[in-house]
Amino acid sequence: MTEETPAPPSSAKAIRLNRVVSRLVIGMLLGLGVAFAVTVFLAREQSPPLTRPALDAAAAQWSKRGPADYDLDLETQGAGNDRIHLEVRSTQPTACTVNGVPPKDRRVWATWTVPRQFDYIREDLARDAGPGAFLHAEFDADYGYPRRYRHVERAGGKETGWNITKFEPRAK
Q1: 160, 78 Cβ separation under 8 angstroms
Q2: How crowded is residue 133: how many other Cβ atoms within 10 Å of its Cβ?
Q3: Residue 40: its pLDDT value, please?
Q4: How many CB atoms lie within 10 A of CB 136?
Q5: How far apart are CA 148 and CA 153, in angstroms?
Q6: Angle CA(81)–CA(87)–CA(93) in degrees, nearest 5?
Q7: Which of 67, 96, 122, 139 has a CB 3.0–4.6 Å from the CB of 169, allowing a cystine?
Q8: CA 129 to CA 139: how far, in whole Å?
Q9: Using 50, 70 and 90 to split pLDDT, how confident is the model at 37?
Q10: Which has more pLDDT, 12 or 55?
Q11: Alpha helices (H) along the chain
């Protein structure tokens, strides 16, 4: 009686197994890469998460210390990435340009006054207070105006907001 040794697996079977394992490893690595990219994208925001108390404190600070006369420059993010220059005297906008051009409709000017920025943020906070969006804001330590504001929708990652790049109180 002779003892037979088992035959080695066929090379075709071994090749198929190697392909399956290789595809699984590549799939796992791609999945980890995507998860990492999403984490970096969501964590890149430098401004603190917006809270109602922080917003209320900043608005109160603006009401108390904010100048009636100021110039500001800001850059928007979202559907249009615009550069806006606004001049305010006695709390009213007196000059405005969007990308260097004055808007035809003067009502647009008031959109970027500091009190209207607070209104805009309040509306976002009321609408998106749940888990549907990330709201971040950074307020100026001296006057309370919103230096940086971000609204990122979780579904789709749509981002809107602005950065005030220059703020100058003006003497009357």
Answers
A1: yes
A2: 20
A3: 47
A4: 16
A5: 17
A6: 95
A7: 67
A8: 19
A9: low
A10: 55
A11: 11-43, 52-65, 114-127
Token pair of 147, please?
A: 């230096």
The identity of residue 134, as a single letter, is: F
How would you class 77 by CB atoms within 10 Å of its CB: exposed for 0-12, middle for 13-18, buried for 19 or more? middle
> For the segment 42-78, what is each residue's pLDDT rounded down to a tens digit?
545 466 889 999 999 999 999 999 999 999 999 999 8
Q: Is 114 left (phi over 0), alpha (psi -120 to 50) or beta?
A: alpha
pLDDT at 88 over 70: yes
- The tokens of 65 are what? 């210390």
Residue that wins the pLDDT comparison between 88 and 49: 88
Crossing angle, helix 114-127 and helix 52-65, to 10 degrees? Answer: 170
What's the whole-number mean pLDDT along residues 121-129?
84
Q: Per the structure block, which two tokens stand in for 73? A: 């420059």
Question: In Å, how far are 26, 27, 45, 76, 99 from 146, measured between CA atoms?
Answer: 45, 43, 15, 13, 21
Q: What is the DSSP string of 132-154?
A: TEEEEEEE-TTT--EEEEEEEET
Q: What integer pLDDT is reported at residue 149 of this predicted model?
A: 95
